[in-house]
């Protein structure tokens, strides 16, 4: 059953269009990689899916009772965050910010859920540590735990493995795959073609003429055929 | 010590003490947020705007100059902080331009239209905060008290949201938080604090009240809450000791407080070295 679908999306800014006629249906349990060159409009597409910006034309609809607050967003890390004086638990708790509404403070139930999400991602031992003292991989896991607090059905991730070493990257993909197997739908921006080959179920290629297809189709017939020199999945 | 007790017997010294501590406390609360948003100098910029507005008020011979100073400063704060991300002139450059521009126009106005015989003295006291803290009237103390209480209540109620907006604006936006509203809120609070703080340390030294407590606490503490509480304590202790020292040593109040802040910052740095790493 389709969760998020786009009809004839045109993405761009006031003065220029990036690409037209993008349609896709993302189903529950899919693991979709969004691939494309820098500046092609991958982050803009994510913001459009989240409803943070309006498409130039076309529309994004959610179905199967998917509410906007069930889509979690994990943005790229910013410079500000790298030296932010906050403990891991404070950051994970802030995932519930959208669910506060008019209430000023978090509930005990939310506190408990935050801890169970930290356990799920193996950062519960770090709860009292300062965020800026963590390694890059630990920081990404903390941010993922925060996103899980915000939403539990669909996760949108913007280059979560950027800047991580290969070993930690593989570990992170493992975690995300685990979440995917638990039934969470994943949409991830990445430049990592081998990983796409290994983990994705679908590929959304963003360029002048965007395409959306299953992974197998993409690497046989789609733009992915260009990457045939990339050795198959395996260990990357 | 006797001198201090002797001085505290005078109501105007007590007022100065109360107001000084309140202002120091409030200005430290948002320090962490401003430092992290790369807006450390907003205090400086806004206080120069307040100085320009003060000049206009005195030229127009308004009896209550707050009528002009507060709205003008709030407006500039909103323009700088809330619209800061998407404007043509970004962050620090916008602050720098506004700051020196307001300073120049303010001084020009005061110079051309001044009726005072001691212009240099007037300007110097608005820039470095002078004895004005010792000439507070009772209703000014009450005003300061009300503003401080409002600032603290707003800060506590919106603490979690301010944290989320500071740490990750994009995430907060995607979670449905009205980020624009909170940026305006932060701007309004900081403007109100700065207008109050002009009485204490003068417009050139206000940044110190905002930055020193936050930077010092960030060296020692590891959570946002601990940093915030430590900043508040740091700031109050420095303000209190600064005022006492200035009474004993007959030094300018504002400069003495800032000097205390700087010394304490050094101590915190050393402490951070020893406890951390």
Poorly predicted spans of chain B: none
What spatial order of strands do you see in the largest sheet of chain A?
A: 5-6-7-3-8-9
Would you identify the CATH architecture of chain B? Answer: Orthogonal Bundle
Q: Helical element count of chain B?
A: 14
Mean pLDDT of chain B: 82
Task: Write structural notes for this entry.
The complex is a heterodimer of chains A (236) and B (277). Chain A is an alpha/beta fold. Chain A is built from 8 helices and 9 strands. Chain A has 2 domains: 1-66 and 153-236, 3-Layer(aba) Sandwich (Rossmann fold), CATH 3.40.50.300; 86-151, no CATH class. Chain A has helices at residues 42-49, 79-82, 88-93, 108-120, 136-150, 166-181, 193-199, 215-220, and strands at 2-12, 17-27, 31-36, 57-62, 71-74, 154-158, 185-189, 202-206, 211-214. In chain A, the strands form 2 sheets. In chain A, strands 5-6-7-3-8-9 form a 6-stranded mixed sheet, with helices on both faces. The longest helix of chain A is centred in the C-terminal third of the chain and has 16 residues, at 166-181. The two termini of chain A are 32 Å apart. By secondary structure, chain B is mainly alpha-helical. Helix content of chain B is 80%, strand content 0%.
Give a short overview.
Chain A has 236 residues and is of the alpha/beta class. Chain A is 32% helix and 24% strand. Chain A has 8 helices and 9 strands.
Topology:
The complex is a heterodimer of chains A (236) and B (277).
Chain A: E1 2-12, E2 17-27, E3 31-36, H1 42-49, E4 57-62, E5 71-74, H2 79-82, H3 88-93, H4 108-120, H5 136-150, E6 154-158, H6 166-181, E7 185-189, H7 193-199, E8 202-206, E9 211-214, H8 215-220
Helix pairs in contact in A: 4-5
Chain B: H1 2-8, H2 11-29, H3 31-36, H4 42-59, H5 66-82, H6 91-113, H7 119-128, H8 138-157, H9 159-167, H10 169-174, H11 179-201, H12 206-220, H13 224-249, H14 253-275
List keywords for this structure.
A: alpha/beta, Rossmann fold, six-stranded mixed sheet, three-stranded antiparallel sheet, 8 helices, 24% strand, B: 277 residues, mainly alpha, 14 helices, 80% helix, globular
